[in-house]
Amino acid sequence: MNEPIKKIAVLTSGGDAPGMNAAIRAVVRACTYYRVECVGVYRGYQGLIEGDFEALSGRNVSNIINKGGTILKSARSEEFKTTEGRKKAYENLKKEGVGALVIIGGDGTFTGGLKFIHEFNFPVIGIPGTIDNDIYGTDRTIGYDTALNTVVEVIDKIRDTASSHNRLFFIEVMGRDAGFIALNSGIGAGAEEILIPEKNLGLERLVESLKASKEKGKTSSIVVVSEGDKIGKNVFELGDHIKEIFPDYDIRVSVLGHMQRGGSPSCRDRVLASRLGVAAVEHLLDRTSGVMVGITNNQVTTVGLNKAIKMNHDIDQELLKVAEITSV
Ligand code: F6P
Fold first, then answer.
1. CA distances, 73 to each of 68, 70, 78, 251 (Å)
2. CATH topology for 145-261?
3. pTM over 0.90
4. What are the φ and ψ backbone dihedral angles of 193, each rounded to 5 degrees?
5. Closest ligand 1 atom, residue 14 Cα
6. 7-143+265-310 is a CATH 3.50.4.10 domain
7. Would you say the CATH fold of 145-261 matches that of 7-143+265-310?
8. Active site residue 177
9. Which of 96, 131, 250, 309 is a good FRET partner for 180, with 20 to 30 A between their CA atoms?
10. pLDDT 10s per residue in the chain (328 long)?
11. Sign of dihedral through CA atoms 260, 261, 265, 269?
């Protein structure tokens, strides 16, 4: 940790998220600005193990701030979960003369990073990049805002057809273990019901709510379901179950899937990614390691990687109330 850092490596790992390219660009350009070399690692930790590196200078990252996905590609590496895999990765970094690593991803990425730090005492800083927003220590993760805008745009379109045909739509959105996308897009798109893993509403409550909507004369409804919802049924089974209870309902199911992860990042995500990319390099050059850079009350902050992955980023109770009140 005491040698001066002359070269920083950057990688993206886990599910891609819009804005990852803006973060890569900021890391590379901050390295140029502070006169350290930068190297991109392809395919996340797998590329680290295979030595799939490319030197990056400021000009290599021109015209990527607006692009979705990640130019460095991403992967979920099984080999990096083994001690041998991580040892190969460390040896490759040493051979390349890399003194510190920036990892952009979610909880799986940070878990791998933590092990790496503990085993090799190698400086690592995390940047939260996931559409799920399920990371503690940051108000927002890179990609979340863009995904929300994508989902709201699609639900608006579904609402047109739902109301034209008096239909009930169940729309499944991403969020493996977290309901942030469902709750916020549901409020933004005016959904009648929102089902999230953090709050098990149970089938009965959903049925009661649909009955109430019917009595109030609603002719079409949108129910947003987080993929991690714990109501006990997948979204298709849920649709079938509700059909049994309301045989006269015309029910349709839409699973939005990976379209939510694509597309050009929103301005909010680009600015967030740029700020966090610069901060990551500055913290590494200041000899900080083992933390994630995040945004709290619009200030760049840091939190231990161990906390970022272990602590819950709580669902805002006020949002739950707003969802309930605005769907009466
Ligand atoms: O973690 C981001 C995420 O998009 C989750 O919302 C989703 O459950 C998962 O990745 C899907 O992963 P994959 O692309 O490997 O199918």
1. 11, 5, 16, 38
2. Rossmann fold (3.40.50)
3. yes
4. -140, 145
5. 1
6. no
7. yes
8. no
9. 250
10. 568 999 999 999 999 999 999 999 999 999 999 999 999 999 999 999 999 999 999 999 999 999 999 999 999 999 999 999 999 999 999 999 999 999 999 999 999 999 999 999 999 999 999 999 999 999 999 999 999 999 999 999 999 999 999 999 999 999 988 999 999 999 999 999 999 998 877 788 889 999 998 888 888 899 999 998 878 778 999 999 999 999 999 999 999 999 999 999 999 999 999 999 999 999 999 999 999 999 999 999 999 999 999 888 788 899 999 999 998 8
11. positive
Question: In which residue are the tokens 């049924």 written?
Answer: 233
Ligand 1 centre to CA of 227 (Å) is: 10
State in Å: Cα 32 to ligand 1 middle: 33
**What is the largest distance, in Å, between two alpha-carbon atoms of the chain?**
72
Ligand 1 atom closest to the Cα of residue 227 is: 8
Cα 69 to averaged position of ligand 1 atoms, centre (Å): 13
Instruction: Report whether 23 contacts 276 (CB < 8 A).
Output: yes
The token pair that represents 120 in the structure block: 């090799």
